[in-house]
Amino acid sequence: MTYEINTADDADTLVGDLARAGRKAQRVLARMSDADKAAALKAAAASLRANAPEVLEENARDVAAGEANGLTGSMLDRLRLDDARLEAVASAIENVASLPDPVGQEIDHSTAPAGMKLVRRRIPIGLIGIIYESRPNVTADAAALCLRSGNAALLRGGSEAVHSNRAIHAAMVEGLASKGVPEAAIQLMPTQDREAVGGMLRAAGLVDMIVPRGGKSLVERVQNDARVPVLAHLDGICHTYIHSAADPEMAREIALNAKMRRTGICGAMETLLLDAKFPASADVVGALLDAGCELRGDKRAQALDSRIKPASSEDWDTEYLDAIASVAVVDDVDDAMDHIAAHSSGHTDVIVTDDEETAAIFLAEVDSAIVMHNASSQFADGGEFGLGAEIGIATGRLHARGPVALEGLTTYKWQVLGSGQARA
Q1: Residue 258: left if φ>0, alpha if ψ -120 to 50, beta else—which one?
Q2: Beta bridge mates, 211
Q3: Residue range 7-34: average pLDDT?
Q4: Using CA atoms, how far apart are residues 323 and 317, in angstroms rounded to an integer?
Q5: Is residue 368 pLDDT above 80, yes or no?
Q6: What is the pTM of this model?
Q7: What confidence tens digit (pLDDT) does each residue in 273-292 have?
């Protein structure tokens, strides 16, 4: 069915209809047992596998269009599916099905002075709108996480992956419906018109929370325009600081992995900070350059290797999502933390050192959602954290922070259990 949107009112009408259907479906989810929700997700994974040829065919259409439209190599990598990646998507859905259901969990309890028992329990947020760009696996991850946590979802993917998203969504809904989940529990926006995003952002009282996943311009638009609470997944300007006491071989391997394993993910290193007293800085930058990474550095970094280009002031605040990194030489851990405080997006920052005291200072004082010691920033992932699939890396300070999975998609209510108390 084709949806024509000519005005903001058209968008509001469409979103309102979808949201009301989603809210009705969410009430059905709220009554489903843990076992029933898990079974539905396993059926969705099976359906995705059964429909793999169609999904991959539709993905090939998106990739071909992306190549014709000049998408970068890293963007095409984020977009492209193959048998192994699609199997990983299906396995991630099954993994979510196997996770403990957070709904109904008792957070804590106490007794009020008047004798009532007070209990805080986790409950679903309600209807969650997810606005995302070119990664089609987000369609499956978001749907699975929302359903497992008892939430309905309204998904709006990017135009780059429109055919992939529709195929994945159709396959999942087929499996979910076979286990009694209403089709409106997981809805995909039926139009790519940008005004539909505005309709989602204006849907206060119908959409309970918006999760944006994408580039800085998308997230800024959502944060600026939303009348609905936003759980922001901002850009990943991730730093790796090589301290003077770092093991040279470890430093080289971590820096290479953090940048070059997959350059197009939000946990990829974008800035390398080298301690002025670290003896093997030239080896680290040389390894990156030899691996095909373009480096842009300050004057002290450029002195390490003639292949390093001069960095502009914009480079320190750029998420490249490509085989490019900025590099600076810093005097000590305080200098490194000052640089991170000025330029980090609050996603993931890393220190490499054998000095436990310095590592403890860095872990305590760097105010990012994820702070690591002696590990690649590419581990910034909900699956690697044991959370199953993630809906995003939240970089704010309220509600949830870091990889947002099941627990981050719940809120809580107070249950007050009395025995006839009346307040004086």
Answers
A1: alpha
A2: 130
A3: 94
A4: 16
A5: yes
A6: 0.82
A7: 999 999 999 999 999 999 99
State the chain's mean pLDDT as an integer.
Answer: 94
Residue 110 phi, psi dihedral angles, 5° rounding: -160, 175
pLDDT digits (tens, 9 = 90+) for 280-334: 999 999 999 999 999 999 999 999 999 999 999 999 999 998 999 999 999 999 9
Task: Name the 3-class secondary structure at 371.
Answer: strand
Q: Judge whether residue 1 has pLDDT over 60.
A: no
**CATH 3.40.605.10 residue window(s) in the chain:** 12-234+396-416
Q: Rounded to an integer, what distance in angstroms lies between the CA atom of residue 13 and that of residue 20?
A: 11
Fold annotation for 238-379 = Aldehyde Dehydrogenase; Chain A, domain 2 (3.40.309)
| Phi and psi angles of residue 282, each rounded to the nearest 5 degrees, phi first | -60, -35
Q: What value does the mean pLDDT take over residues 178-187?
A: 98
Enumerate the CATH 3.40.309.10 domain ranges in the chain, comma separated.
238-379
- Tally DSSP H helices, then E strands, for the chain: 14, 16
Fold of the domain built from segment(s) 12-234+396-416:
Aldehyde Dehydrogenase; Chain A, domain 1 (3.40.605)
Dist CA 170 CA 114 (whole Å): 53
Q: What is the mean pLDDT of residues 220-243?
A: 90
Alpha-carbon gap, residue 79 to 159, rounded angstroms: 11
Phi-psi region of 399 (alpha: psi -120 to 50; beta: other; left: phi over 0): left
* Among 219, 228, 203, residue whose Cα is nearest residue 14: 203
